[in-house]
Write a structure and sequence with these properties.
Ferritin; 72% helix; 89 residues; mainly alpha
């Protein structure tokens, strides 16, 4: 991040105010609903990574490659987890 003179603000309040991840249920949930929530949370992160990819690629292509790797791994996990509900039906 120093190479492009950017310093992320990782304070909890800042992160919480800008998150795209849906809020988790407060009470106990059945497994299928928990899986659906986790998959939606992962997909929200993937959407954010895709939305910022071009801007990051323009400023720092090396970091863009890291985002692509994370995106691929998260999409894979989302698919694996979502399969849990398909096999339960």
């Amino acid at each position: 991040m120093r190479a492009i003179n950017v310093f992320p603000d990782g304070r909890p309040g800042t992160v919480a105010s800008q998150t795209t991840v849906p809020e988790a249920p407060e009470a106990a949930v059945i497994t299928a609903d928990a899986v659906d929530y986790i998959v939606s949370a992962i997909n929200a992160v993937v959407t954010t990574l895709r939305d910022i990819h071009d801007a990051v690629d323009e400023a720092d292509p090396s970091s863009s490659g890291i985002l692509e790797d994370y995106t691929q791994r998260l999409e894979q996990q989302s698919w694996f987890l979502s399969a849990q509900n398909y096999s339960a039906n």
